[in-house]
Every structure is written in C-alpha cells, then in structure tokens.
UniProtKB/TrEMBL annotation:
Keywords, alphabetical: Acyltransferase, Transferase
Keyword Lipid biosynthesis: no
Keyword match Acyltransferase: yes
Name by which UniProt lists this protein: GNAT family N-acetyltransferase
Cross-referenced SUPFAM superfamilies: Acyl-CoA N-acyltransferases (Nat)
Coiled coil residues, start to end: none
A Pfam family assignment: Acetyltransf_3
Length: 174
C-alpha cells in the first residue's frame, strides 16, 4: 500500500501525520460545538479522549501508511484543523472516507477546500482503484460545497446512516 508523504504542502497549508503533542490543539477544535454542529456525537471535551483519538489516528497510519492529518497554516505554524482519508465500510463495501474539520476562526478562507483537494489528489494518484466518499449531513451546506468544489459528486447509492442521522455521500465515482 502506498504511503502518504509525511507532509503534504499546499499554497497555504501543511498537512502532516498527527503527533501525540497535537492533542491540546485538536481539543481546541473538536471541543467547539460549532465545529461538530452537524455531528454532535463527535464533540470531545476531555484531553484524555483526544489523546485516545490521536492514538486511533496513528494506528490507522501504522496499519495503512496514511490517515487523518493535522492541518497547519504554513505562515504561522498554527494547527487549524484535521483532514484525512481512512478506510471504512459502507453497505458492505470498503471505501476511503474523506473528512475535514477546521477551527471556526478559519471558516470562509478556503482551507477545507485546499486541504481536501490535496488529499483527494494524493488518494486518486496513489490508490486509483479505490472509491473516495465524503459523508456529509444533509443540512451541512458548507461541507457539501467543499465536496463539490474538489470534484466529488452527490452519490445517493452510498448514503448511509451515521451516528447522528443520515449521511449523504459525495464520491469520485464516474
């Protein structure tokens, strides 16, 4: 299986494999109710829970050579979000789930689109036979815009029940 580079660079962002030291900054993002408004079960308020989550992300990296990345502003070095691809099963089939979450102070700057586009490009180049799916709540218009801006299309065949309700699928399927 191809390994994602330790660091993907875009014009303004650096996407890197998470480190345990990133847990405090990640908590600052995932503990914000606005960030998980459409997926309230993903709210994390305790550092220990984020440390467990980071270990889970690192386990995916160890097993598969890629996974969820921490996203840093190149100019400031500030951790502003996370974006990644991970294996998951939808309707009995294995797919790559593309996800992105960013601190509200960065919303409207195009960071999610920039990071997701970089990861989608890497995935399509490195794992061309695999289906990429972004799962988005029907009311999350901002995430739907990110998915369509990077070239994913609404694909109801992969809609699925998530923890917080129905997730619409946006895929790179032709």
């Amino acid at each position: 299986m191809p390994r994602q580079p330790v660091r993907l660079l875009t014009e303004r962002l650096s996407l890197q494999q998470p480190a345990e030291a990133d847990a405090v900054a990640i908590l600052g993002i995932l503990s914000n109710p606005s960030v998980v408004q459409h997926n309230p079960s993903d709210l994390v308020t305790e550092l220990e829970d984020v440390e467990t989550l980071v270990r889970h992300w690192l386990g995916h990296w160890e097993r598969h050579g890629f996974g969820n990345c921490c996203v840093f502003e190149e100019k400031t070095g500030r951790l502003v979000g996370n974006c990644g691809v991970r294996w998951m099963t939808i309707h009995g089939g294995r797919v790559l789930n593309l996800m992105y979450r960013f601190h509200p102070s960065t919303w409207g700057r195009g960071y999610a689109t920039e990071a997701a586009a970089a990861l989608l490009h890497w995935t399509q180049e490195s794992l061309p036979a695999e289906l990429v799916v972004a799962r988005v709540r029907p009311t999350n218009l901002a995430s739907q815009r990110v998915a369509t801006k990077i070239g994913l299309r609404r694909d109801p065949a992969f809609d699925d029940q998530g923890e917080d309700g129905v997730d619409w699928a946006f895929t790179d399927r032709a």
